[in-house]
Design brief:
The structure is a homodimer of 203-residue chains. The first copy, chain A, is an all-alpha fold and 203 residues long. Chain A is built from 9 helices and no strands. Chain A is 59% helix and 0% strand. The radius of gyration of chain A is 17 Å and the shape is globular. At the A-B interface, helix 1, helix 7, helix 8 and helix 9 of A face helix 1, helix 7, helix 8 and helix 9 of B.
Chain lengths: 203, 203
């Protein structure tokens, strides 16, 4: 598996620390159907992964410094509650963000992947945000901001998909596969927010 | 305002029957920023609305008969709990679906629009699904299926945006504006599902 760095702090993909997802593989298969995710999309995601592999640092820098940093409402989630910078936290979560791009494109969507989606979901909520990094920051990322920012991610990733000389039609297909995967992941990330048992109120 | 039909059953946009949204206009403005929705996008949405205005019946037919009907998991929400067809319910909700395309493109995103987003949100949940039509169907649409199906809507709308001779670049911009609007609306639709006070468990 391609990695964004040799060691990625807090990246526990596939390890025993990651709990079993409450979502079943059957539910995942149904979600793939609802999202229109086909074998062709898997192939184009692999291609996207090859195109993006040496650009993940630049892409995440674009999202974090080029966009999020200038939206106070979003930037605060990488800062202390008082608004001070947390450079170490930001650096660590940026590296995980980079790896997430690779995982999106190159990992098989199997039980390990499903489990890690739930882990990512929890790390957005008050159940797990800040914990692995041991930082004091906002207690959670509101669900609505996660939903909203997917649109920005989808819009801004496209030019990076076009940097390796693929035809416009292939770029479109890589992009469509990317957008479907993100909506699929988003569906999984909404689960803890909508789980009455958790009783969160983090819209 | 352009309407999909002279009378649309259960379409209460702008009427006194629609309650005030619990989301504030300020939160809406913040969401627009998170989603990257700019003035340019408003302009391209208007253009999209002109392009789609005489195609809404065909588009909704594509989604309902061409896609949803063959995905049992989604098709069941327009049927009885036993799986029998409800043609009258389907026809009524299809017409509202058509009008929603026009509203997405042509309405100003003001207080009325915000209120109706909340109404749409509630009509997906057990709080309001089936009520206005007085039908016996599934009690709610799971949040994950709403999130997922947005990807299908976004993918399939694009060719319809290209039917009126606009340049590929303009079609791309109309499509980007559309995708941002849908993610914005989706963020609003997730609210009742994530509202601890409602205590829903409808992921």
């Amino acid at each position: 598996m391609k990695m964004a760095a040799e060691h990625i702090f807090g990246y526990t993909y596939g390890s025993a620390e990651v709990a079993m997802s409450p979502v079943s593989m059957r539910e995942l298969e149904e979600l793939k159907i609802s999202v229109g995710f086909r074998e062709e999309d898997e192939r184009y995601l692999r291609q996207a992964g090859e195109v993006l592999a040496d650009q993940t640092e630049q892409v995440v820098l674009h999202w974090r410094s080029g966009i999020i940093a200038s939206i106070p409402n979003l930037a605060r989630h990488s800062r202390t509650p008082e608004g001070e910078a947390l450079p170490d936290y930001l650096a660590k979560s940026n590296l995980r963000f980079q790896q997430w791009i690779l995982d999106t494109c190159l990992r098989p969507y199997d039980q390990d992947w499903l489990n890690y989606q739930q882990e990512i979901a929890l790390r957005h909520t008050s159940l797990k945000k800040n914990k692995i990094d041991g930082v004091r920051s906002t207690p959670y990322v509101p669900l609505r901001d996660i939903v909203a920012f997917i649109a920005v991610i989808n819009e801004t990733i496209k030019p990076y998909l076009a940097t390796k000389g693929h035809s416009p039609s292939d770029v479109d297909k890589m992009h469509q596969a990317w957008c479907k995967s993100l909506q699929l992941q988003l569906a999984l990330w909404t689960r803890p927010y909508a789980d009455a048992k958790q009783g969160l109120n983090e819209w």
